[in-house]
Amino acid sequence: MSDDPIRRQVGRPRFWERFALEDLSSAEWEALCDGCGKCCLNKLEDEDTGEIALTRVACRLFDDGSCRCAQYEIRKQFVPECVVLTPEKLRETAYWLPQTCAYRLLYEGRPLYPWHPLLTGDPETVHEAGVSARDLTVPEFEVDEEDWEDHIIEEPT
Ligand code: SF4
Ligand code: SF4
C-alpha cells in the first residue's frame, strides 16, 4: 500500500455518512477527495446546450504520474482560475464535476463508491478501479486550446 498524500485518519467515524457537507470540519472536507484527478482535466462546454465534454488535456500543474497537483498548497498563485471547492460552491459546480467525484456524490445524496480510499484505507484503489486520470493526460502547454476538442474522452467511471 502506498502512502496516502491526503490525510484520511481524521474526523469522526464515517463522517461522510452521518453529517451534512456544511457541517464537516476542514480536515474531513479535505479527506473526502478520492484523488482521482479528473477535476484537473480541461472541459469544453457547449454554449447552446450546456453540455460538458471532458478532455485528456490536463491543467499545467497536474502531475500525470502521481495524479496530483504539483503545487496544491500554492496552486492559486499559478492557476488563479482553479476552483476551491466548498459546500456553497457545489451549488454552481456540481454539474461539471466528474460523475464519481465524492463531493458531487454526497451533494446529490448518493453514497461513495466502494473503491474510495476512505472505505478501503488505500489510496491506490481509486487507480486500480480505473476511474482516475493517472497515466491518461497530456499537459495543456503541449496542446493549443483550439485543438482540445481532438482530445475529448469519455470519463473513466
Ligand atoms: S474530481 Fe473530486 S474526488 Fe476527484 S480529485 Fe477532484 S475533487 Fe477530488
Ligand atoms: S491548479 Fe492544481 S488542483 Fe487546480 S486544476 Fe490545476 S492541477 Fe488541479
Automatic annotation (TrEMBL):
<dbReference type="Pfam" id="PF03692">
    <property type="entry name" value="CxxCxxCC"/>
</dbReference>
<dbReference type="InterPro" id="IPR008228">
    <property type="entry name" value="UCP006173"/>
</dbReference>
<protein>
    <recommendedName>
        <fullName>UPF0260 protein PAA8504_03717</fullName>
    </recommendedName>
</protein>
<comment type="similarity">
    <text>Belongs to the UPF0260 family.</text>
</comment>
<dbReference type="InterPro" id="IPR005358">
    <property type="entry name" value="Puta_zinc/iron-chelating_dom"/>
</dbReference>
